[in-house]
Amino acid sequence: MRVVDIHAHLVPIGLVKRAQSGSIRGVEVRQHGEHEYSFHLEGSDPTRSLPPKLIDTGARESWMDEQGIDVQVVGTWADLFGYELPPELATEWAQHLNNTMLEVTSDSPHYEALASLPMQVPGKAAEMIPMVLAEGFVGVTIATRIGATELDAPELEPFWHALSDCQAAVFIHPGYSDDDPRTADYGLINAVGRPVDTTIALARLLAAGIPTRFPGARIILAHGGGALPFILGRLGRNYELFPDLSDPRSGTSHLYFDSVVFDPDALCFLVEKAAPDAVMLGSDYPFPIGDHTPKKVLERAERLTETQQAAILGHTASKLLEIRTN
Is 186 exposed, middle or buried (0-12, 13-18, 19+ CB in 10 A)? Predict the structure, then answer.
């Protein structure tokens, strides 16, 4: 069995070089040191400094070897989704993200890739889904919000239709935001803000019935789905009070989750609340808040059976994303 890490981020050096050359409209790169860069996308503030390990595939592959990980499913850095770009530039940016990602991943046995989409142009995003799958991507990655637009918004229905029709995977990851002053201290943007962001987005998707209305969409949530396993009963009670909503328990049966919860009891509870074989190994590489030894939480989760552990380590991801198994 091949061990698959389904939650990791990568920024191709080719993307940096294209932006430095001025060949990407609406995007600039600023260099702060020998291996430190930040991006400035039109319509938004400059990004944080790019962590060097996002680019360094040598260090990444050494880490994978140390951790016994055979394949990493990589998507872009959340700071680079580019949803603030004007529509005429958004598609070009997504294509640059995808083309440079394939330069790194397409001929490597170490990687499978998730495509980026111009989600502020829903029709174009929907049109691109079958194209990126044909190019070799195993799915797409999007943020928990598209600017100020929620994922359950009616204007995004073409995207969900296309996902379902293609039976494609979408990895939903919190976008970077530091606009809540309550999370400005103590590292709470990462520790609390991102899982809460995922929880709110997911609660809205469930209430709107997106997972049940578009059953072909293979929806994967970062960070163990945030607080979902622990508030599912409360969401169910909310459904009883507002029966025009969709039943969150039915919707949850269509969801998949990564294992980035750090605590073995939390992992076991997630496995119990999710559909069978719905949890997959994740690391959130290369960020400090990520799980740098992602298999250890499984080793400590004594309530998991060997079959459940094997599903998390690679069986589910290999089947769901049609990843090569040898």
Answer: exposed
- Give 67-88 pLDDT, tens digit per residue: 999 999 999 999 999 999 999 9
Residue ranges for the chain with pLDDT beneath 70: 324-326
CATH assignment, 4-12+53-320:
3.20.20.140
Please state, in angstroms and as integers, the Cα–Cα distance from residue 264 to each residue in 77, 83, 170, 227, 268, following that order. 27, 35, 26, 15, 6
Condensed to tens digits (0 to 9), the pLDDT of residues 229-250 reads 999 999 999 999 999 999 999 9
**Residue that has been written with the tokens 């995922």 in this structure:** 198
Q: How far apart are CA 80 and CA 232, in angstroms?
A: 31
Extents of the domains making up the chain: 4-12+53-320
Residue with tokens 């290999």: 318
Instruction: Report pTM.
Output: 0.97
